[in-house]
Every structure is written in structure tokens, then in C-alpha cells.
Task: structure prediction
Amino acid sequence: MNATIRSEQIDSTTEVDGDHDSVSEVEAGIRDFVRNDVAYLRRPVIGGPEAAPLEPSAEATVNSVNSLIQRVAGTSLAEIEKLISELESLRDLLHAEGQRVQREISGYAQLSQAAMKSTRMIADNVTQWKRAADGLRNS
Result:
């Protein structure tokens, strides 16, 4: 049993490390891309933003960045939605299990009360039989 738990812990740790590595890779790629290919877009344009439209290569770069961000965000959103779905399922399971446990406890309480009543009845009957037996011996 402990080996199974440890194996599951190692598997989940490996998954987390793998996800962390993937996220780090994507972040590094974005940083490099912004540093090398988009840095010139941050330079102020003389005459204001309306004065100079983006050149075709700059527009392609912006579209490329937007596409990359949408892919990364899409994956993150899908993971978040999956996690929300799993948490909702877990909530439903826990609610159902809570109700089951309440039913079990109620049944146990009823059984316990019935056992107490039966024990009292048996004790009362044994006491009466003992008195009757003592009365017969003494007579």
C-alpha cells in the first residue's frame, strides 16, 4: 500500500516537474522573442501613435506574439476549466459520501438504541427469574 502511494506521489511530482519545465520553456521563449524581435516596438514614435502605422514586418511580429500568447493562454484556460470540472466532481462525491455517512451513523444509533432496549429487557427478565428462583428455594 505504501509503495503504491509513494509511486503515485512520484508520478504526480514528475508530472508537476514536467509541467513546470514546459511552462519555464514557454516563458523563456516569450522573453527571448520579446527581447529580440519586439523590442523596437517599445520605442516611442515621433509625432504620436497615429503618425506612423506599423510596418508589415512589425505587424507580423505582433500577430505572432498574439498567436503565441493565445496558445499559451488557451492551454492554461483549458487546464483551469479541467481543474474546475474535477473539483466540482469531487465536491459532488464528497457531498454524496457525507450523506451516506450520515445515514450510516443514523442506522448505527438506531441499532445501538435497540440493543440497549434488548439488554434492559433481558436484564429485567433475568432479575425476575432470579427472584422467582430465590422464592422457590426459600419456600
